[in-house]
Amino acid sequence: MHAFAFDAYGTLFDVYSVTALCEQLFPGSGSALAQMWRAKQLQYSVLRSLMDRYTPFAQVTEDALVYSARALKLDLTAGQRSALMGAYMTLDAFPDAKPALRQLKSMGLRLAIVSNGSPAMLQAATNSAGLTELLDAVISVDEVQIFKPSPRVYALASTHLRLPESEIGFVSSNNWDVNGAGAAGMTTFWIQRGAAEPQEELGHPAAHIVHALTDLVAMIR
Amino acid sequence: MHAFAFDAYGTLFDVYSVTALCEQLFPGSGSALAQMWRAKQLQYSVLRSLMDRYTPFAQVTEDALVYSARALKLDLTAGQRSALMGAYMTLDAFPDAKPALRQLKSMGLRLAIVSNGSPAMLQAATNSAGLTELLDAVISVDEVQIFKPSPRVYALASTHLRLPESEIGFVSSNNWDVNGAGAAGMTTFWIQRGAAEPQEELGHPAAHIVHALTDLVAMIR
């Protein structure tokens, strides 16, 4: 392994603050809103890709929010909408992210993000979490105008890092994302921080399972 | 409008009997299983399409069942698995389906199914529901090896019926499917048999909303 490519949201960046703001704005319905919003965000990104109707992730995320609030019969004001979208710009990194990236970098590995996020969203989150100087590349699907798990997205890691797919470890908390990277020829690491869940039945299960990003350091040594 | 193309599962065919069998086999967990199974079936069909890893709908449906049972910690035996898959082969049509198709056909419209279903699944369901002689074409995505909402799927209706997309009405109970057909240039009809739900935020909302398939007859007259 000469490099690692990381998924962003839920893998390096903790979206807990978005959930917390949902609950603060809609007491009692916040967790249902956050859950549906996240599911719709993924669903819309995949459906739009298949429809040949790509639109940047910031827009997909806002569309998913609007739908979810409507489905849950919550009255979403323009101010609330913009506050919730803004929460995506100032995410914290998970506590294991910075120490893991720092150690991997010191071992000579090249590090990248490969994310559905729009370039501006990714830059804001990377800066806000203090990860910018540790990353060799911050790669957005926007470059190929199609979302994960299209193989064209995972191929970007290879292009940017100038390494064959097989020498790049791909790390994600989303098992469907792991399956996509595996189908594209990468060596995959599924990070499961919480309770054990089954792998998706998509034909390309994770090659490795880790429980913290710092586990990667020991596996590489 | 010179023709109608119908989605199959949930639009012409009632999958209630599948849900009922879930509940019979797993009392108390059947509705959770049926719900997750349906969501995963859609998710896997879209993810596999985007991964360039098409596999027929019968397999996607079985994979979705296996995952859902595992996620819900239900012990699914080979016999139960095959019984549940078999339930897809003998579905009833909704009560409004046959009368609507018969009237539309007598008015000279050409009628087709355009479905994610595998050819064998569609043939079995069409025969079982007694709709075979009313349909000019039963079209499966299997022909193009990609699932809805790819525009390549909706284009099949135009090819088989030898009519431009704009002269074919597309009818589905799934709003994402309606959006896909609309993006592909068809005139769309969203059938909402139950409680009102918001349209998906995918840029191509339904041109018309109906509450029973027989409503189409009055709209065409």
Give an overview in words.
The structure is a homodimer of 221-residue chains. Chain A has 9 helices and 8 strands. By secondary structure, chain A is α/β, with parallel strands linked by helices. Chain A has 2 domains: 140 residues, 3-Layer(aba) Sandwich (Rossmann fold), CATH 3.40.50; 75 residues, Putative phosphatase, domain 2 (DNA polymerase, domain 1, Orthogonal Bundle). In chain A, the strands form 2 sheets. A 6-stranded parallel β-sheet of chain A has the order 5-4-1-6-7-8, with helices on both faces. In chain A, strands 2-3 form a two-stranded antiparallel ribbon. The longest helix of chain A is centred in the N-terminal third of the chain and has 21 residues. At the A-B interface, α2, α3 and α8 of A face α2, α3 and α8 of B.
Number of continuous helical runs of chain A: 9
Give the low-pLDDT segments of chain A: none
Count of separate structural domains of chain A: 2
Principal-axes shape call of chain A:
globular
Which structural class do the helices and strands of chain A define? alpha/beta
Oligomer: homodimer
In what order do the strands lie side by side in the largest sheet of chain A?
5-4-1-6-7-8
The CATH level-2 architecture of the largest domain in chain A is identified as 3-Layer(aba) Sandwich
Query: Can you count the beta strands of chain A?
Result: 8
**What composes the largest sheet of chain A?**
6 strands, parallel
CATH fold name of the largest domain in chain A, please? Answer: Rossmann fold
CATH superfamily descriptor of the largest domain in chain A: HAD superfamily/HAD-like
